[in-house]
Amino acid sequence: QVQLVESGGGLVQAGGSLGLSCAASGNVFSINVMGWYRQAPGNQRELVATITSLGSTNYADSVKGRFTISRDNAKNTVYLQMNSLKPEDTAVYYCKIQAYSGIYYWGKGTLVTVSS
Predict the structure, then answer these.
(1) Kind of pairing, strands 10-13 and 110-115?
(2) Mean pLDDT value across residues 85-97
């Protein structure tokens, strides 16, 4: 079993910053891609950012230049630094890890609310 524990969500004013982290524990072997997704009320879950084991990153156009994803392979942890937050960034943020085998796991989500 793999457990993902997300932390760092909360309430912030527009223009502010917030950092998220997601730590994986349990039977964690050979993690390939780690990423963040989000789901706003009434919307489908969407990609925010991903990072491979070699550090290659991919961002949604809506967050490019504002969000930064990083990871600590020794700690099996992925981070998301969110700057210049906008009300439209309000959502539940989920982390996802995918092993080289293709198996993937989701966290339970952490709520980020950006007030205008």
Answers:
(1) parallel
(2) 97
Distance between CA atoms of residues 35 and 26, nearest Å: 18
Q: Is the pLDDT of residue 55 over 90?
A: yes
Q: What is the 3-state secondary structure (H, E, C) of the chain?
A: CEEEEEECCEEEECCCCEEEEEEEEECCCCEEEEEEEEECCCCCCEEEEEECCCCCEEECCCCCCCEEEEEEHHHCEEEEEECCCCHHHCEEEEEEEEECCCCEEECCCEEEEEEC
Question: CA nearest 67: which of 92, 54, 55, 50?
Answer: 50
Cβ atoms of 91 and 40 within 8 Å: the answer is: yes
Tokens 């997300």 locate to 6
